[in-house]
Amino acid sequence: MTSPTASTLSTPLNAEGAGAVLDGRFTSGKLRGVLAETCAQLGLDPAGARLLRFTNNAVYALVTAPLVIRIVGSTQLRHRVGTVVRVARHLERHHLPAIRLLDGIEQPLEVGGHLVTVWHQVPSIGRPATSADLARLLRQVHALPPPPGLAEWAPFAAVRARVSDAEEISDADREFLLERCAELEAELAELDFPLPRGLVHGDAYPGNVIPGPDGPVLCDFDSSCVGPPEWDLTPLAVGRERFGDPPVHYRTFAAAYGFDVTSWPGFAVLRGIRELKLTTSVLPILRSRPQVRPELFRRLDDLRSGRTGARWTRYR
């Protein structure tokens, strides 16, 4: 495949042609409309609600009630909200420290063509969560039986779905991402995992731990599945390698968990998969949040060029 030029990498294309300006599906105005309609259905007041994060999902904290409203941010990954609800209920039954769904309503809600979940807000007080806290929570997760019907680990399904759902991406970048999926999929098939398969969180990094008043709790179960625990041990190691996180954070994490995934020969493959997922996470919202474009194209260029030592900046 011929490598595209730098201008190809930085010029988004879409079905309307290069440079077309189209309204995104997940703009701030549209999301606020979904938030307002959700609150109207539940008898809540959306005034002053704060956007906590928006990459895979838009997450709003209400200020008029101790609740968080989460709006799915991809048309191709809507099915994962069923996993979120199933895993959240499972962790609650087993008393594992995690965010809790609002009781008394059928979840998820369908609001204006969007899928929405509503959660009890965890007051972010007390000491910040540490990498050791994450390790201890993961040990509890990995010790649980999976809930009935939970899907098997399929790391490339979400990547391919996001490529398919991309608001703006060049044909060259689309082809590269799908080829990279195929390469890593073949390498993954050759791995022998040392730890027993079971329930895994799926996106286990410190941003998915909330320092609550009774101790740290887990959140974000979109990627939860039955799979190798090694996958949950990979994000912190990739954070050290790609984002320059302090090495002591990963050392503390590995010691608390009791296994260093970077010492296993298969880590390079898991790192490659994690980096691919980190890169493609914003594709469905690219037109709605154009501020992430420079970082996206930098990551694509690094992956295409094999620059494994290049530092990345987290999407905002």
Descriptors:
globular, alpha+beta, single chain, 316 residues, Aminoglycoside 3'-phosphotransferase, Chain: A, domain 2, disordered N terminus, two-stranded antiparallel sheet, 9 strands
Task: Describe the overall structure.
This protein is an alpha+beta fold and 316 residues long. The chain has a single domain, classed as Aminoglycoside 3'-phosphotransferase, Chain: A, domain 2, CATH 3.90.1200. It contains 10 helices and 9 strands. The chain has helices spanning 6-10, 28-42, 80-93, 131-143, 155-164, 171-188, 230-243, 247-257, 267-280, 293-305, and strands spanning 50-54, 57-61, 67-72, 109-111, 114-120, 198-200, 209-212, 215-218, 225-227. The strands form 3 sheets. The protein has a 5-stranded antiparallel beta sheet. Strands 6-9 form a two-stranded antiparallel sheet. Strand 7 and strand 8 (215-218) form a beta hairpin. Helix 5 (155-164) runs parallel beside helix 9 and helix 6 packs antiparallel against helix 9. The longest helix has 18 residues, at 171-188. Residues 1-22 have low confidence and may be disordered.
Helical/strand content category: alpha+beta
State the fourth-level CATH superfamily: Aminoglycoside phosphotransferase (APH), C-terminal lobe
Strand order of the largest sheet: 1-2-3-5-4
In total, how many beta strands?
9
How helical, in percent, are the residues? Answer: 40-55%
Count of DSSP helices? 10
